[in-house]
Amino acid sequence: KLNIGVDTIQHGVEGLTFLLTESSKLMISEIDFQDSIDVLGFSDELNKLLLQLYLDNRKEIRSILSELAPKLPSYHSLEWRLDVQLASRSLRQQIKPAVTLKLHLNQNEDQTAQVLQTDPSTLLHLIQQLEQALGEMKTNHCRRIVRNMK
């Protein structure tokens, strides 16, 4: 009926969906939204309709996006134990340490436990990597990304 190709309509719908979801994620103001769509070169009437569509539906879009977000488990507590094997029948002089961790997690009001076992050198490497990741979060680049994700 529109005498337009299917691909054109599909790309238009995908573009409109992207515009509304990203604008709703960032909760941009009316002025910022207008500035964003002015670049597209639409008529003033269409720009006003898009703005009204955004204002009417942004809360609903945000609620749908929050429901679609994966529910990741959260930390509850940690138990740990250090085991050291000092000797065996074949080797009388050996030291074989092992760290056992029991990680308690909350997910959807259910508690689960994960048991992990590692040697101290791997645990130290893991700690160094986590500290490095925390240090990365303090950089300006990461702060900007996190601020835009909220």
Automatic annotation (TrEMBL):
Classification lineage: Eukaryota, Metazoa, Chordata, Craniata, Vertebrata
Species whose genome carries this gene: Mesembrinibis cayennensis
Domain of life per record: Eukaryota
PANTHER family, per database record: COMM DOMAIN CONTAINING PROTEIN 2, COMM DOMAIN-CONTAINING PROTEIN 2
Name the UniProt record assigns to this protein: COMD2 protein
Pfam families in UniProt: COMM_domain
Domain COMM span(s) in chain numbering: 74-141
